[in-house]
Write a structure and sequence with these properties.
12 helices; 5-stranded mixed β-sheet; 363 residues
Amino acid sequence: MSDHAVLHVKGRVLVGPEDVRDELWVVGGRVCYDRPAGARDVRTVEGWALPGLVDAHCHVGLGAHGPVDADTAEKQALTDREAGTLLIRDAGSPSDTRWVDDRDDLPKIIRAGRHIARTRRYMRNYAHEIEPDELVAYVAQEARRGDGWVKLVGDWIDRDLGDLSACWPREAVQAAIAEAHRLGARVTAHCFAESSLRDLVEAGIDCIEHATGLTEDLIPLFAERGVAIVPTLVNIATFPQLAAGGETKYPRWSAHMRRLHERRYDTVRGAYDAGVPVYVGTDAGGSLAHGLVAGEVAELVTAGIPPVAALSATSWGARAWLGRPGLEEGAPADLVVYESDPRADVRVLAAPRRVVLNGAVVE
């Protein structure tokens, strides 16, 4: 298209859950709500437009056995883009994906550096594996490497115990979180079980991933402190399979994983009802496929979260939480257009009509 070419998005533009406009214009890659003077070479796209979707727990550059090459990472990012995911919070990756920032055709990434785990208490080749006396130093290192986030592994299977248990003493996480905050970074943690949650929240953590261990006595604490959760229900769906694989060696762990799975929807709905912020994340990467954001939104609705709130968790609300714009005047034109109103049926998210990234229609 020429320098004067513009994109006209016509139909319904969901700037916010209640802020619905009839059209927007894309000029110079940015959102405009007034028809530009002298516009020509106008391309029109019709439908229901949302801000580019957010996957707040995604691992570009990570495979089942650790870091992947750039070609594989590119395919992961492109798969997410085709699904309408245009903003990713990469919740831990051993790969250097800074080269993605130079590509206007790939989703924008907010990085949390590399996972920080206890020695022999996480998946091999994923994390820095350290002891508690090193935690503050490694958190500081990843805070400087990331984009305002740090990722801890809060619990994992303890082979001696035969079950999930907390990885860090409270004093260690309290000092580490304080250091991250001093450096301007927020902290999140992988947590399946119940045992690590109170210490992490009372130590000042900002977010918990998965949060399957949330109990009725802990939910008010999360709500009071404003600690967000990213449930990754499409990942939690794999718990029965994982439990079956570990039944012989770790029967206590297997039974625990099944219990966490069985109550997953009640856990998420209880947190939402109490006012805990809930956001969409798929845990793509590792062993899980990319491009699952629509499925995760549908899972939140299945759990009992109202459709508009589930949409916000991957669009308006998620972008505000991560400090990135939606479809405000002058914002980068990252949007997805659908056949019908996603507020009426979130399943429409699985079939984007058009994806627009940095003002360009993805063909």
